[in-house]
Amino acid sequence: MKNDILNKLLLLYKKYSQNNKPNADSQMCLFWPIKNPPDILEGTKQLKVIEDEFELEITEDEAVEMYDMNLQEASEYIQKLISAQ
């Protein structure tokens, strides 16, 4: 399941990031613009797509925590969120 989550994140990352060759070490923060990152992640298009893909509601605190993770860490974190439902 973790690999499924990571693979889905990689596909989303490729769509929303300017990094054309994402890998497990790619940073979640690059889902959002670097020059003008949002003050609040909750409600952004990128977070909504992640929530829809994994059928989750992600709080602002959870989004901020994931923002500083790489994709591998974020996939593990999403797995915990799914398990907690």
Supply the number of structural domains.
1
The largest β sheet comes out as: none
* Global morphology: globular
Number of helices, where a helix is a run of at least 4 consecutive DSSP H or I residues: 4
Our estimate of the beta-strand percent is under 5%
Description of the molecule:
The chain is mostly helical. Helices cover 55% and strands 0% of the residues. It has four helices and no strands. It has helices at 2-16, 45-54, 60-67, 71-84. 21% of the residues are buried. The model has no long low-confidence stretch (mean pLDDT 92).
Question: Helices, strands, pairings?
Answer:
Layout: H1 2-16, H2 45-54, H3 60-67, H4 71-84
Task: Give the key terms.
85 residues, mainly alpha, 0% strand, globular
Summarize this, please?
The chain is mainly alpha-helical and 85 residues long. It has helices at residues 2-16, 45-54, 60-67, 71-84.
